[in-house]
Amino acid sequence: MKQPLRYLLTATLLAPLLSGCGSNDQPADAPTEATANTETTVASPEVAAETAPAETAPAQPAAGETAATPGGAFNISTIPVSTASLGGFPYVSGPKGYKFPNPSDSAYYEFDRSYVYDGQQLVPIEGKVLRRQYRVINNNKKTSELMQQRNYETLIKSLGGVQVSSGELPREAVEKIGRDTYKKYTGNIDAGDQVDTYVIRQKDKEVWIQVKPGETYMNINVTERAAMPQQVSTVPAGELKKN
Prior knowledge:
By secondary structure, the chain is α+β, with helices and mostly antiparallel strands.
C-alpha cells in the first residue's frame, strides 16, 4: 500500500507543473494572430495628405503655342485668294430702288479705320473707307431685308468673297473697345443691328464689306486695307526763310 500511495502523491504534485509548462492556451481576451492581421490602421490627416497621390496638373501649351479657343481666331490667310475682276472702289452698289439723297449720308476717306466683326470680336481695319446709307425711293416699292441679304451674299461670293459673320452685333464687343471709339469709325452700324460681314482676299487686295439691311434705310461700309499715304514732310530751310 505504501508504494502505490507514493506514486499517487508524486503524480498529484507534478500535474500543476506539467500543466503550466506545456499548455498552449491563451487568455480569452487576447487577440489571435488572424485578428491582429485584419485590423485596419487609420492614418492621421497629416500622414494621409503626405501619402495621397498627387493630382494631375492640367496640360499647359508648349512654348510658342497658345491655348485653343472655341472656334479659333479669324485668320485671313485661310481665306481663298480670289482672281475675279472687282471693278472700281467701292466695288458694290446700293440696292435697286434706293439712293443716298444727302452728302451727309455718304462719307469717303482715302485713309481711315473701320471696325469689323469677325464672329468673336471687333477688329480694326485701316485703309480706304466708304460709308454710305441708302434710302428707299418709293415707300410702296421697298425691298425686304432678306432680299437685300441674299443679293449681296450672291454678288460677293461670285467675286470670290467669304461671309465672315452674320447676326446681331454683340453689345459686349462694342463696349470692349468703347462706344465713342466705335461710333467714330463705323457710321450708322450700331450694337444690336443685324450686320453681314464679308471679306474678299486677292493677291494685292483685302476688301471688307459690311451690310446692314433695312427696308427704308440700309447701310454699306466698304474698307480696303491699305497703308497710310504720307502727306506731310519737313519744310526745307529755304521755305522757312521765305515765310
